Amino acid sequence: MKFYYVYIVLCLDLSFYTGITSNLDKRIQDHNDGKHPDAYTFLRRPVELKWFEKFTNAQEAIAWEKQIKGWSRRKKKALIAGDWESLIEFSKNYTEYGHPDSRKTK
Question: Yes or no: is domain 1-70 CATH 3.40.1440.10?
């Protein structure tokens, strides 16, 4: 069975990069070796793997990668930390729930 990995790395400049691969160890090594000079991570090396999820369905993995790439930094940090409560809070629609600064704290 073939596996696909969606992953998040922390770059030297403290930005996050989200990607997909079928060989996680090799892909992280490629990032750190600078195999692709045009890649986002090339000038931001070394990178450190912070989170990954394994999939058996390529289309599902691609969908997750695209979804995570659209997330805010704080939402990615919540995912990495396994902070599900914050992840849900950061997912709320401002139109429906108002801006987080205007919400009452519990």
Answer: yes
